[in-house]
Amino acid sequence: MQPPQHVFDPFAGVSTTLLVARECGLDATGIEVMPMGEIIWRAKSQLERYDVPELRAIREWIYSTTPGESQRRFPHLPITQYAFDREQEAQLMWYDERFQQMDIGDNFKALLKFILLSIREDISYTSKDGQFLRWDSRSGKVRQRNAKRIANGKMPYKPFHKRTILPVQRAILQALDHIILDVSFPASSTGVNGKQELIVGSVLDAPAARAGLGRCRDYVSALLQSVRLYQNLCLGVGFPRCRPTSHAQPQTKSVELYRGEQI
Question: Which helix (H) or strand (E) holds 134?
Answer without folding.
Answer: strand 132-135
